[in-house]
Write a structure and sequence with these properties.
It is a single chain. The protein has a single domain, classed as 3-Layer(aba) Sandwich (Rossmann fold). It is α/β, with parallel strands linked by helices. It has a five-stranded parallel β-sheet with strand order 2-3-1-4-5, sandwiched between helices. It starts with 28 loop residues before the first strand and ends in an 11-residue tail after the last helix. It is globular, with a radius of gyration of 18 Å. It is built from eight helices and five strands; from the N terminus they run βαβααβααβααβα.
Length: 244
């Protein structure tokens, strides 16, 4: 059961789900944040990152869809609106695989605390909301190491959507889920798309051992709790600067 602080059928026959990669024997640790847009996850991870950096801890930060290897292809596909749900999903998977092999795994083996702003659960939630098979997605990312902690920041749909709409001059085409033909109104399409993603996240709370965080709680109070949970579940001393 998650920790509480304060919801498309496939086009192909289901295939057996591979179990996530077993936790490897490495000295590092992996902390992940997940949640829909506007849930506050990135703000909280940034604050945690700065706190650890100031303390001199050995950390590495990585974020979803940030590999330079596929960035140009993704950008061109978005600009020309050529991405189907499957090609979009495969581009994100290639991005993740590149970062996993070049950053995440080497640093975990090197004894670093890796902080990830969104992880494979983003693909499970978003890509299945676009119609990709959950079975196929689980197999696609079966090589990924299991996080030590997955924080799931959950805010009510209206709260999260209002935060995003208020801070964006215009919602982007794919961001709003316009490729799905849900609605001709971009704001309404975004809301429906986010609701699908939220429902998918909620279904993973128990099965993927999410630590549930209330995204409506004050930022400083939520950050205090986040630091407390990290300290309880991970031995931070092993990442602390060595005393001279």
């Amino acid at each position: 059961m998650g920790i509480l602080t304060s919801e498309i059928p496939a086009a192909v026959e289901p295939v057996p789900i591979k179990e996530p990669a077993l936790k490897r024997q490495y000295p590092g640790a992996l902390v992940v944040v997940e949640g829909i847009d506007g849930s506050g996850k990135s703000t909280q991870l940034y604050l945690l990152k700065r706190w650890l950096e100031i303390g001199g801890y050995r950390i590495h930060f990585t974020e979803w869809n940030s590999s330079p290897l596929v960035k140009s292809a993704t950008r061109r596909g978005k600009q020309r609106r050529l991405l189907t749900p499957t090609t979009f999903s495969l581009l994100h998977a290639a991005d993740f695989a590149d970062r996993c092999e070049r950053q995440i795994m080497p640093l975990l083996h090197g004894g670093y605390l890796v902080l990830a702003d969104r992880y494979i659960y983003t693909a499970f939630a978003r890509d299945s909301a676009r119609g990709c098979s959950p079975h196929w997605l689980r197999n696609l990312y079966s090589f990924a190491p299991t996080p030590d902690i997955t924080f799931y920041f959950r805010a009510p749909l209206d709260v999260a959507v209002n935060r995003i709409v208020a801070g964006r001059p215009k919602l982007k085409y794919y961001e709003a889920g316009m490729d799905l033909g849900i609605s001709l109104d971009r704001a309404e399409s975004f809301r429906i798309f986010q609701e699908r993603i939220l429902n998918n996240y909620d279904q993973m709370i128990d099965s993927d051992h999410f630590v549930l965080m209330d995204g409506t709680v004050r930022v400083n109070k939520l950050q205090k709790l986040m630091r407390q949970i990290v300290g309880e579940r991970i031995s931070l001393q092993q990442f602390a600067p060595k005393k001279k």
